[in-house]
Design a protein that fits this description.
heterodimer, A: mainly alpha, Rna Polymerase Sigma Factor, Chain: A, B: mainly alpha, two-stranded antiparallel ribbon
Chain lengths: 191, 279
């Protein structure tokens, strides 16, 4: 209904779509790309692409959120291919300034009562997991992000990634295991 | 993954059930077999532990807040459709540009200095004047823009046009010559027909023109009071009788000559000659 209004030229409907999905799309982009600047640009690009191709959306083929995520994923893959040569492969210990920019607001609010050392540790963990996620291969990363961060079910992920559900499950398990190995290695070195 | 069989469950089967186990959808006999295999298999047991740990790590990862300006930027860019990334990607899209557009781009780059000169007001004024002069010249010559469409560039047609133009110019020159000849003949006729007494009257308008003379030169009338020409001397005090010059002169004395004292015509007078010189 919202999409139809938007295609008909209702600007308010388009604004509502942007308000509804900008957070989800930005988070997918941020976790996949690794930096807040890239995520902002990519999210903007996703919406531009969505705005241009909104008329091609067919509700009988799937949910709107799946269609939006598919657009996002395709654009992220394109971005990954373009920036493959100059991608930063820093170690997990390296702290990017982009991560500091992306400090979750909820964390800032909730952790006000927590002791400072606990807040610092929580922040360090966040950054470590984020960095480890960035070191996964794109196939594993996108599957893990969609499942564990965006709570998509396997069927939706299979639709977005255009692979069978069994492959999706396998990629998710391999991604989780690889992430755990990377983080264990990091914390073993720290210890 | 090695395909071991432990407690009635193979490793690849265990791998496919890991997600279901973590999602808590395994029940009954299948759950028992999974747990038993996880405990006894040296490969699948650690794998399941890693997958569980990885999922727990990811659970700690909270959602980040998008920038405040993101929504506004999106709404603005969807109307303008222009982002920094799109601008960066512009060169990659230029590979699909057709050769006509490339030629246009090259031409615009090559013509940039010329266009910069042309846009100067001085050049525009010169161009305007040249255009004006050309249009006036064409109109004087009788060339109309509509005629240009009918111009034939065949050699015979060009030759024909050349001879036509030449004939027209010669005719025009001859007509002017005839007019001048007629005017000169009429003027000569008038001069011959007019009586001699009335001729000074003809020069009256010429005298009036001296009022408008701004050359600061003295009028010719002043000269006539002292001398008829440059070689004629003017005497400040002329003798009563015939002057020395008259006596020396072979001509008889002129009775009309001016004499200030007619009662004493023979009085010797020392004559002083002054020269009035005009610069």
């Amino acid at each position: 209904m919202l999409v139809r209004r938007c295609v008909a030229g209702d600007a308010a409907a388009w604004e509502e779509i942007v308000q509804t999905y900008n957070r989800r799309i930005y988070n997918i982009c941020y976790r996949f790309a690794g930096s807040s600047d890239d995520a902002e640009d990519l999210a903007q690009e996703v919406f531009i692409k969505m705005y241009r191709t909104l008329a091609s959306y067919d509700s009988s083929k799937g949910a709107f959120v799946t269609w939006v995520t598919t657009i996002t994923r395709n654009l992220l893959v394109d971005h990954f291919r373009k920036t493959k040569q100059d991608r930063i492969t820093d170690s997990l210990d390296a702290t990017s300034s982009a991560h500091e920019d992306a400090q979750p607001l909820s964390e800032q609010i909730q952790d006000q009562s927590a002791p400072p050392d606990q807040r610092v540790r929580s922040r360090e963990v966040q950054e470590s997991v984020h960095a480890a996620l960035a070191r996964l291969s794109p196939e594993l990363r996108e599957a893990v992000i969609l499942r564990d961060l965006q709570d998509f079910d396997y069927r939706e992920i299979a639709t977005v990634l255009k692979v069978p559900e069994g492959t999706v499950k396998s990629r998710i398990n391999r991604g989780r295991a690889e992430l755990a190995r990377l983080l264990q290695r990091t914390y073993r070195q720290v210890m | 993954m090695p395909d071991h069989t432990s407690n009635g469950m193979q490793c690849h089967e265990f791998d496919s059930l890991v997600s279901d186990m973590l999602d808590s959808v395994l029940t009954g006999n299948q759950l028992d077999r999974f747990q038993t295999h996880s405990r006894t298999c040296s490969v699948c047991g650690p794998l399941f532990a890693e997958v569980t740990a990885g999922r727990n790590w990811l659970k700690d990862l909270r959602e980040v807040e998008p920038p405040v300006s993101l929504v506004n930027n999106i709404l603005a860019s969807t109307t303008g459709v222009d982002t920094q990334r799109l601008r960066v990607n512009m060169p990659a899209r230029q590979t699909r540009v057709s050769w006509i557009e490339r030629a246009q781009a090259w031409a615009s780059g090559a013509m940039q200095p010329v266009w910069g000169t042309v846009r100067q007001p001085r050049f525009a004024m010169s161009f305007g004047m040249a255009f004006f002069a050309l249009s006036v010249a064409l109109s004087v010559l009788g060339v109309k823009p509509a005629d240009l469409r009918q111009i034939s560039l065949r050699p015979s047609a060009v030759r024909h046009a050349y001879y036509n133009t030449q004939a027209r110019v010669v005719r025009y020159y001859d007509n002017i010559k005839l007019v001048y000849q007629v005017q000169a003949a009429v003027r000569e006729l008038k001069r011959n027909v007019t009586p001699a007494g009335s001729r000074p009257a003809e020069s009256a308008p010429a005298k009036k023109d001296h009022k408008n003379d701004t050359t600061q030169q003295p009028e010719q009338k002043q000269d006539r009071n002292y001398s008829q020409n440059e070689n004629h001397l003017i005497l400040a005090c002329a003798p009563l009788g015939p002057s020395v010059f008259d006596r020396l002169s072979p001509d008889p004395p002129n009775p009309d000559r001016f004499n200030p004292d007619p009662l004493n015509p023979d009085l010797p007078v020392v004559s002083v000659t002054t020269y009035r010189r005009f610069v």
